[in-house]
Design a protein that fits this description.
The chain is an alpha/beta fold and 368 residues long. Among the domains are: 61 residues, 2-Layer Sandwich (Dna Ligase, domain 1), CATH 3.30.1490; 147 residues, 2-Layer Sandwich (Nucleotidyltransferase, domain 5), CATH 3.30.420.40. Helix 7 packs across helix 8. The longest helix has 32 residues. About 1% of the residues have low confidence.
Length: 368
């Protein structure tokens, strides 16, 4: 993205599509267009493209309605066909590091390298005596065929993929707490860790960020659609009715009462169904956090920031805080957007921002 050019981030989920267009400049990041739209069933499942032609038609229509400029876009991916590993290497030059990563990846990555797209990011460097320092590197490998289906979707929508990025990286750019000036350049060791949890419709992205950099990431094959389905099964209602109850009543937590004409018995039944469905979800987050702590006991997680459609479930922050014994709040996906030039009011943007988190992070790709 040129300094004064536009960048469009597109987030394709199981039941919706989100996009954000940002114009970057020295004075800040201007959000010029943003939109979210529901997707029909059967196009995306667990982060993978199922129906190329159907998804391409939806993307083409969405692009036009949202009013995005140009034909170039950035896509975020997250699914079980992506492997993320953290490894240590000596401090060497870029070419030597690339060769070392290729060599080490053959054993560390359970995907044949000729079938994978490989990328990496240096997380931190630790100088040593007489030059014997080391660097911590996050390595990402994705199955090439899976990536190719996303590229094919864009091509059939008459669009061009400018870049494909890990959703965890985009989420970190958009939502991770700002690094204090005094800590900048100090690496992850100087900052406490925060878990960023993007609850999508079909999957959930969890990334632990410290010092403004991702340290650990995991994809959980559970999302807010599981809550909707629990209500459909429990109450025998339509999908739209169940989703409305998820938003209006939600899980147990907080002190305010649902602003609706529902009977107390109905509210209690909805809480019971959603709490039961959310329990396994909270357990998966807890296991992920425990695993991270076991691998990096010095980087204790101080709290969670949640985004995504599932984060809008009524009382979800309070529910997760009680279940995980950690502070939980909504992440501010628009914290690095300095100006809103979309057709949305500021209030509308703030309401939509949790769902836009990954799309905004993708569009922020080249901000320095």
């Amino acid at each position: 993205m040129a300094m004064n050019g536009m960048s469009v981030g597109i987030d394709l989920e199981q039941s919706s599509i989100a996009g954000a267009q940002i114009r970057g400049a020295k004075t800040g990041q201007t959000l010029t267009a943003a939109a979210v739209r529901a997707l029909p069933e059967g196009l995306v499942f667990e982060g993978e493209v199922v129906d190329v032609d159907g998804l391409a038609a939806q993307l083409k229509s969405f692009w036009k309605e949202a009013g995005f400029s140009g034909r170039r876009l950035r896509l975020g991916v997250a699914n079980q066909k992506i492997v993320v590993r953290t490894m240590e290497f000596p401090i060497i030059d870029e070419n030597e590091l690339q060769a070392a990563i290729q060599f080490q990846a053959q054993e560390a990555i359970p995907i044949p390298l000729d079938e994978a797209v490989l990328d990496y990011q240096v997380l931190a460097t630790v100088p040593g005596e007489e030059g014997a320092g080391k660097q911590k590197v996050l390595i990402v490998a994705a199955q090439r065929d899976m990536i190719a289906r996303f590229v094919e979707v864009a091509k059939k929508a008459n669009l061009q993929v400018e870049a494909i990025d890990l959703q965890a990286f985009a989420l970190t750019r958009a939502v991770a707490p700002a690094v204090p000036f005094i800590d900048q350049g100090g690496g992850a060791q100087t900052s406490e860790a925060t878990a960023l949890v993007h609850i999508g419709s079909g999957i959930t992205n969890l990334v632990v960020a410290a010092g403004g950099m991702p340290q650990f990431t995991r994809v959980i094959n559970l999302g807010c659609e599981a809550l909707v389905q629990a209500l459909i099964t429990h109450r025998g209602i339509s999908h739209d009715e169940a989703d409305a109850l998820r938003l209006r009543v939600g899980v147990t937590g907080g002190t305010d009462q649902p602003t609706s004409d529902l009977e107390p018995e109905t509210v209690a039944e909805v809480h019971q169904a959603l709490d039961a469905a959310s329990e396994s979800f909270a357990d998966e987050i807890r296991r992920s956090i425990d695993y991270y702590h076991s691998q990096d006991p010095g980087g204790q997680i101080s709290g969670l920031l949640i985004t995504g459609e599932g984060a809008l479930t009524r009382h979800m922050p309070e529910y997760l805080s009680e279940a995980l014994h950690l502070p939980v709040s909504l992440g501010n996906a628009a914290q690095r957007v300095t100006e809103n030039k979309t057709k949305l009011s500021q209030a509308e943007l703030e309401t939509m921002a949790p769902r836009l988190a990954i799309a905004i992070g993708l569009a922020l790709e080249d901000e320095e």
